[in-house]
Amino acid sequence: MVAAEFVVVANRLPVDRILTPDGEEIWRTSPGGLVAALEPMMRSVDGAWVGWAGQADLQIEPFEADGIRLLPVTLSEQEIQDYYEGFSNDTIWPLYHDVIAPPQYHREWWEAYVEVNRRFAEAAADAVAEGGTVWVHDYQLQLVPEMVRGLRPDVTIGYFHHIPFPSHGLYAQLPWRDQVLRGLLGADVIGFQRAQDAANFLAAAKRRLSHETKASSITLPDGRMPLVKAFPISIDTTPYRELAQRPDIRARALEIREGLGNPKHILLGVDRLDYTKGIRHRIKAYGELLDQGRISVEDVAFIQVASPSRERVDAYMHLRDEVELAIGRINGDHDTLGHTAIRYLHQGFPREEMVAMYLAADVMLVTALRDGMNLVAKEYVATRADNRGVLVLSEFTGAADELRQALRINPHDIEGVKDAIVGAIEMPRAEQSKRMRALRKRVLENDVDAWSQSFLRALEQAGRTRHRRHEG
Ligand code: G6P
């Protein structure tokens, strides 16, 4: 196999293998923002992508999909339970999202995490060309940078962390806190979503490992100085803008409104069904507005898309029960034969249908309790070329640092959320348009291409500095 100049390492391949009930194999774009963010960049370089195909015990040879060379990593059923559902999504995920759910600490999970990280690191080390570049992604693979460095000291290594990095007070709970920091410090550039995440990481490295830190760099005992910096991720805005102009999709948006009984206002929530997203808080606020008669189901409909996610992890199963109980109660109390209060869709949808929903939505509700970035907020903005619609945005998202003209809320403050919903519904068109113009400017200028370019520029620079040090 030809060695690749550029290797992306992520838990998931950009496509998942799906076996249909009649035994047919299909490849479908993976869930999550990462794939959408990297795909455009990957097509334009001679690269390879190391990742998992989303199923247990799949032994597949490297293959090409949509012009990207894919190198599948095999995970056993036990490893999926311990490394993916366990350590990644029941230890790190809740801990890094400010312990919204209690993190579970199990030594077997940690051991599986180390083992699987080693497998990803070896695959990347085998694939990358002499002096090439490896870009590692996200919290499932925090040990990979150090492992790749051990195997291939000649390559330049980047790491981007897509989720929050917590304050030291919380991070310190992790029994393997020092090992994880050392794992990340194997990279030449360590990127975070927000300046606060980078600062939290630097503070942890300083406190725990006594490394000397400056504003955005850290000096390691071996003389290396990794760059630690915020690179806020974004979306590829082009497909959203294009789809939003398509007559059939615009017609579909009208049809969606009609299907809801032509309410005056449509509220929309779009999330993976995850406890970090504040779905319960949003439902509660909407339910209370109905209870109090501040809005009616005839006038204000609420669509909640909650795509299935991590369904075998306990905290996600409980969340689903709670969300569905709450929605059932509100609908039971307030539905009429002609109008439903909350149209709940526990499904994923193709992008075309998502854009139609964004176009139909007068108010977009992003009420996450903690979120690395939140790309849904940016997708909504990208579709609204008509400069209509209001984005209600939690201040606990990375997106809130950039999208200043959204209606900002604290999702824990239910009265505040209720007032923001009413404020959004009542917002005069001129103000909607003023805010949306400013939001669009920001999102269109800082798209995913700008993000990957700026990360890769930093990485290139780091690579040059490293080579000079080696030669000198
Ligand atoms: C978040 C994470 C991604 C992850 C995605 C979907 O966006 O940052 O790394 O891929 O969620 O979650 P899943 O567990 O299905 O990969």
Could you walk me through the main structural features you see in this protein, from its secondary elements to its overall organization?
The chain is an alpha/beta fold. It contains 17 helices and 18 strands. The protein has helices spanning 33-44, 77-96, 107-127, 144-151, 168-171, 177-184, 195-209, 237-245, 247-259, 279-291, 314-334, 351-360, 375-383, 399-402, 414-426, 429-445, 448-471; strands at residues 4-12, 15-19, 25-29, 47-52, 63-65, 68-73, 128-137, 156-160, 189-192, 212-213, 218-219, 227-230, 265-272, 300-307, 342-345, 363-366, 390-394, 407-409. The strands form four sheets. It has an eight-stranded mixed β-sheet with strand order 5-6-4-1-7-8-9-12, with helices on both faces. A six-stranded parallel β-sheet has the order 15-14-13-16-17-18, sandwiched between helices. Helix 2 (77-96) crosses helix 3, helix 3 (107-127) packs across helix 4 and helix 10 packs parallel to helix 11. The structure holds 6-O-phosphono-alpha-D-glucopyranose. 6-O-phosphono-alpha-D-glucopyranose (G6P) is lined by residues 11-12, 31-34, 89, 138, 162-163, 309-310. Residues 11-12, 31-34, 89, 138, 162-163, 309-310 line the site of 6-O-phosphono-alpha-D-glucopyranose. It holds the Pfam family Glyco_transf_20. This is Trehalose-6-phosphate synthase. Belongs to the glycosyltransferase 20 family. InterPro entries: Glyco_trans_20.
